[in-house]
Structure formats: C-alpha cells, structure tokens
Amino acid sequence: MVKPSLPPLASSAKPLVLLTGFLGAGKTSLLREILDASAARSLSVDVILNDYENAELDAETLYERAATVAPIAASCACCSGLQPLVELTLAAASSRHDLVVVEVNGTADPTPLLETFTLLESRIPLQPRWQVGVIDARHFGHRGPFDSLEIAQLETASHVVIRHAETLSSPERQQLINALRRSNPQASLTSAFPLVEQLVDIQTHRRKLLLPSPQPAQRMAPLPSLGHPLAHAFTGCQILLPREVDPDPLRAFLRHLPLGVLRAKALVTLRSEPDRRKLFERVAADITPEPLDVPFSDRVPSSAICIGPDLDPLELLSLARPILGPDCQLPCSLVA
Q1: Which of 78, 176, 183, 293 is the least crowded, having the fewest Cβ atoms under 10 Å away?
Q2: Can you tell me the distance from the alpha carbon of 215 to that of 321, in angstroms, rounded to the nearest whole number?
Q3: What SUPFAM superfamilies does the annotation carry (predicted)?
Q4: In what helix (H) or strand (E) does residue 161 lie, and over which residues does it extend?
Q5: Do you find a cis peptide bond into 242, omega within 30 degrees of 0?
Q6: Distance of CA 80 to CAs 86, 296, 312, Å?
Q7: How far, in Å, CA of 127 to CA of 250, rounded?
Q8: What DSSP assignment string belongs to 221-251?
Q9: Which of 8, 13, 10 is nearest to 206 (CA)?
Q10: Distance CA 133, CA 154 (A)
Q11: For residues 187 and 108, what is the distance between their CA atoms, to the nearest angstrom?
C-alpha cells in the first residue's frame, strides 16, 4: 500500500532536524536513511552539510537523494561555520521543500547552535527543531580526553540513534542505554523511519502552528560548555590523491594511518571502475568492509580527509606517497 504524501504546510514553518555526534558515529549514513525514508513519504529535503575539512566528499553521496545539498567546510560549526550555517538555514526556511536537515561536524558542540536558532526564532521559523544525537555503540565512553565533548553532544538531544548496536550483546546494549539515559533522560531512542513518521504525524495534525519540540528545556542564558573547548583541539587535513587508485593500496594507506587519526575518508576513482567513484571510510582503527558507491563527478578531486587532534599534514603526506604514489599532494602545495 502506498502511503499518502504529506499535506501542504498550514504555516510557513517547517521541521528542522539537527544531526550531531562524534567523528565517525554514523551521521551521514543516518542522513542517507532519513532521505530515503522521506522520499518514501514524498517529502523533499534541503540538506546543509558541515564537515571538518571538505564537506564536498560526503555531499557527493547525497545529491541524488536530496532536493538541495549545501556543503560547508568549517573547522567548527559553532564558531567559524556558524554564520554561513545560519545564512543557509535561513534560505532553506523559505524554500518550498518540506524539511531541513543539518548535519554538523563530529567535533562541534551543539549548544551554541541551539542557542542561536532560539535567538533567531523570529527570522528562522523552523518548528519543531529536533536535535538527533548519533551514538556509536562501539566507542561511546571510550574517547579518552574527548569523552566530555561526546557527552555535550548528547545532553541537549531530543532524540538518540544508536549505530552499530549489533556489535553488542543484549547486556552490553542495556548498559549503553542506561549510560545514555543518565546523560539525557528526556531523549527518545529512534531510527530514521520512525523519526520521519513522527514528522509526518506532526505535520498532518497541526493546523496553524507546528507542535513544540519535545527537546529538553533550553537554558535561559548561555552557560560555559565543557565540550566546546575540546572542539578546537582537532585538526583536519586533506590530501589530494592520484586520479585513479587501486583498492588494496588505498586500504593499506587507511590501515597505516596513526591512531591519532580518529576519522578518515577517501573519495576516489578505482582503476577497475573508471565510471564510478567510491567512498572509503575509517573510524578509529576500523575500515568499512565495502566502500560506498558514489555517482561519477569531477566536482571534487580524488581526496583523503583525516581528522584528529594535532595532526601533522606533512607526516600524513609522507605516509601516503610511498603507498599511493608521488602524485599525492597537499592542496596548498606546502611540499615542493
């Protein structure tokens, strides 16, 4: 049975979904699932994608799914990326599409974003405003000095999505849920399709105004966030790769990255498949078994993105060249 599409908005407001979570937690994968679920309900979605170094890599995986995709490359969505993010959100609020989804980079503290959207409520009429915290079941609570940043990303969430839960036993999963509830007892556990169905239900039953967001009460005045200073301890490094590569050397490069690289992505064209592009990913020491297919486009050059605390671009380049070839280089030509 085909589900009915969403009725026209009764007001100019539309929902905003803010995806937050630590590096490699699975935000972009969840975003793709939300887009697929939205398409099944005939919803059109404006996507704003903030990544630490080069948002175009993930944007390439979204263009066929979203109504619009606006990538922002900024080291901190709550600082250097805040102004462009607000401007793009303002534009999306006035579009004819049904939903706005913003994915912020994995080192961002969401508190300044939530405060800004609250202060600009009259200019950005997006309701409900939901923050979806994405949790990696394999690594939650094991971020070392960045545990407080991960908790800060969770504390203000209205919803929580647990990724990689299949790696846990039933007792381990319950322990994780208990830990999440201690940090944020108000948040609802969900996934992509139930989340979209909630939005459909809200929009179906409202008339003049959208229902208020079920998120925890916002602070009346900004308070210092323990997570925010840690967001600035990260560096991002882009390495331009040869136009075509082989998969085994690329996996070897990802495997040999230092442990300080918490998140790595590589968007490449394989010699064996010149008409497609592939997105390889590494989270902590785990490399995704199969790369993601990406439609061929020359908008973004073949590149690797590495994110972690105090990374040295020259060190990473010196690691890439023996494995992937001398054509590897830094975008700013720092190496002769």
Answers
A1: 293
A2: 48
A3: Hypothetical protein YjiA, C-terminal domain (SSF90002), P-loop containing nucleoside triphosphate hydrolases (SSF52540)
A4: strand 159-163
A5: no
A6: 11, 31, 21
A7: 43
A8: S----SHHHHHTTEEEEEEE--SEE-HHHHH
A9: 10
A10: 6
A11: 19
pLDDT grade for 47, boundaries at 50, 70 and 90: very high
pLDDT tens sequence across 286-313 = 898 899 888 767 777 899 988 766 678 8
Distance of CA 86 to the CA centre of its chain: 17
Show the beta-strand stretches assigned E in 5-112: 14-21, 45-51, 68-73, 99-103
Question: 183 and 291 share a domain?
Answer: no
Element spanning 162, H or E: strand 159-163
Closest alpha carbon to 264 in 52, 116, 118, 94? 52
Report the DSSP pairing between strands 303-309 and 263-270. Answer: antiparallel
List the domain range (segments joined by +) for residue 238: 234-324
The confidence score (pLDDT) of residue 179 equals 95
SS3 content of the chain, % helix, strand, coil (to 5): 30, 25, 40
| Distance of alpha carbon 39 from alpha carbon 122, whole angstroms | 29
Whether 24 and 133 share a structural domain: yes
Q: How many domains does the chain have?
A: 2
In DSSP notation, 154-223 reads: HHT-SEEEEESGGGS-HHHHHHHHHHHHHH-TTPEE--HHHHHHHHHHHHHH-SSSPPPP-SPPPPSS--
Domain ends where: 181, 199, 229?
229
In the numeric block, which tokens belong to residue 313? 């671009």
Task: For residue 88, give the 3-state DSSP assignment.
Answer: helix
Name residues whose C-beta falls within 8 Å of residue 175's C-beta, 6 or more positions apart in sequence.
none
Rounded to whole angstroms, the Cα distance separating 332 from 324 reads 19
Q: Which residues contact 1 (CB under 8 A, 6 or more apart)?
A: none
Residues 183 and 240 in one domain: no
Query: How does pLDDT run across 57-105, given as a tens digit for each residue?
Result: 777 878 889 999 988 865 555 556 677 888 888 889 889 999 999 999 8
Token output for 297: 């486009």
Q: How far apart are CA 33 and CA 36, in angstroms?
A: 5
Q: Cα(27)–Cα(231) distance, rounded to whole angstroms? A: 17
User: Is residue 335, in this structure, part of any structural domain at all?
Assistant: no
Residue 167 · residue 138 · CB < 8 Å: yes
Token pair belonging to 329: 């280089």
